[in-house]
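Budget justification, computational time. The allocation requested in the original proposal was used primarily to generate structure tokens for proteins on the priority list. As evidence of use, we reproduce two of the resulting records. The first is shown immediately below.
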Amino acid sequence: MQFDIGHRTDVGRKRDHNEDYLAVFQPNIQAEIVHRGVLLVVADGMGGYAAGEVASRTAVEAASQAYYGDLFSNVEAALGRAVTMANDKVVEEAARDAERTGMGTTIAVAVIRGEELVAANVGDSRVYLMRDHRIAQVTHDHPWVAELLAVGKITPEEAARHPMRNVITRSLGGHAQVDVEVYPASPLREGDTILVCSDGLWGMVPNERIAHILGSLSAQAAADALVAAANEAGGHDNISAIVCRVVADDDSTEFDKTEMLDPIELQDTQPIPKI
């Protein structure tokens, strides 16, 4: 399989710095692609004195190193272990500096290996899969209101407007132990699009709009347009998106680039590493 990949991260319109961090890892060695595939990661940090930035970057780098360094486990086990090790690293980094105490981050990871998608997450950063213009959320969020909903203390309507709906029960760095949710492999086919994003995107842009953008633009143009749409809706948080489309070797699909929203200033805050 071949991929068209685009990415964008932005500070948004309400924050003074970006605590998100994202990365696309595409090994140069064919054997490593076959064994471990392509890794797409988004982390949404939290904590004062720039600690959120440290947490998100630490988590992404640690998870990627651990995943590609695991030569023996299957993809699901390697991914779960990698995110667990990322938690260990964030906890370790927080202990180095008193001003970073309590820092943490969400994380969402998508692995594309062969013709399969494997995903994992902690918190409320998400992985989506779009096929035939229909978009589905692959990962589950871990918000506090979900626990209230599960035991019947609130209704779905109350959950949607609950003042603590953005409070999450799981994050990397919060505790020495973390519950990583890994999702079974899903088959992929040509034309599928994978989106990995922070809540600064999905919290501002409805699924219908996300699907329309993904289906209308090339991967990089779609990533740019998704961030623009979140900012147009208010940009209340940092915004990050990785868009990956599965394409044929001779794909000549034409995307409508006239669908772009009005241009706004977009601020990438870190380089996108590749290995």
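The second record produced under the same allocation is shown here.
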Amino acid sequence: MAVEQAIRLLEQVVRDVPIGTNLALFRLLWAILCGAFLQSRGAIFPALQSLGLKRAQIRRCSQALRKGVWTIDALLQPFRAAVLAQGRWQPCRYEGFHPVAGDITAFWRPRLKGRIGKFFHPLAQRAVPGVGFGLLVNVGRVGNVRIPLLRLILRAEKGINQKGLLPRLLTS
């Protein structure tokens, strides 16, 4: 039952993405949900291979991820709509306010060239080169469990660091 619900949700998420790219993104998202990326430590090819996909299918997924015609917002909005349509997720209210939580994170890549800034790395205890992201969520509940509902993923522009990304995130 849970697997069928997850598949239906992923189908709704990729429904409006161009044909070909939608199937490849579906497979990538399914690999994330199955935990295949945890086992492969984030490597795309081994993660997809662990699902039993053939080489040609894995290459199509990689191409869709890198060069496909899609945006994260085009995937995020149908996901939010599907979650809200189920009616189980309810926003938290505190004295009439609906809280929104935000955070900044990065994929640290010291040798990467191009779209990169400097972001604080807790293990290094200093700013390290990486690709930064700002995340915003609506705070809500399903039953008695507090669950965030992803609202926005904001990628830092080239050369933007943590201090530069924060104002953009807060005004979005």
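A brief technical remark on that second record: The mean pLDDT is 86.
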